Amino acid sequence: MGKVVMYSSVSVDGFIADENDQPGPLFDWLSSGDVPLDESGVVKVSQTSYDYTRPYWDQIGVTIAGRHVFDMTDGWDGKPPGGIDHVVVVTHRPQPEGWDPKAPFHFVDGVEAAVAKAQELAGDRVVEVAAGDVGGQVLAAGLVDEVRMDVVPVVFGSGKRYFGSVDAQHLLEDPDVVIQGNRVLHLSYRVRR
Asked: Which of 67, 117, 162, 179 could form a disulfide linkage to 186, CB 3.0–4.6 angstroms apart?
């Protein structure tokens, strides 16, 4: 069974979006270099960021996201982002009316059920959990193995928190990855059990 990784780009003060639910400059690092990160050639990063990010992206089998993110992205038009095989959407509502049942999206009620479904689909590949409210719930449930952050040099002051509404202490190990890219600091922590 693959590990469960909570991941997002984040401001230095811990936000994944501003008060208007916009990422602002959080993804600027994805256009700050000259090395294409994917086949589209649109996303270009520094060689250092490529060497860290590409191998991780290649390990992801399933992404777990909340219904809010799904709705904001219009369900990625039925195609999982970044070449990922499946998306598990945590929601209390049914799939959207007219949704293509063949699209590799799975609508699940509750984070425990979402992680179980994602691990079933991912096999030994990584289950990535989007940071924010759903990610915080998965962390609080004790189901996250690793926390990865791409810390961007911006202060939002308020907005959508990386760990959502987590209200209890959770210890992480010392960072096992600290890599400086262009306009980003890549960090990875194992969750202490």
From this structure: 179
Are the C-beta atoms of 48 and 189 separated by less than 8 Å? no
Domains, in order of start, for the chain: 4-190 (3.40.430.10)
Please, is 32 exposed, middle or buried when counting C-beta atoms within 10 Å of its C-beta (0-12, 13-18, 19+)? middle
Contact 6, 144 (CB under 8 A): yes
Model's pTM, two decimal places? 0.95
How far apart are alpha carbons 168 and 113 in whole angstroms? 22
Identify which of 69, 2, 82, 95 has the alpha carbon closest to the alpha carbon of residue 39.
Answer: 82
Query: Which segments in the chain show pLDDT lower than 70?
Result: none
126 φ, ψ to 5°?
-70, 140
| Residues 16 and 23: beta-carbon distance below 8 Å | yes
Helix (H) or strand (E) holding 98: none
C-alpha 13/C-alpha 161 separation (Å) is 9
Q: What was the pLDDT predicted at 39?
A: 85
Residue range 105-148, pLDDT digits in tens: 999 999 999 999 999 999 999 999 999 999 999 999 999 999 99
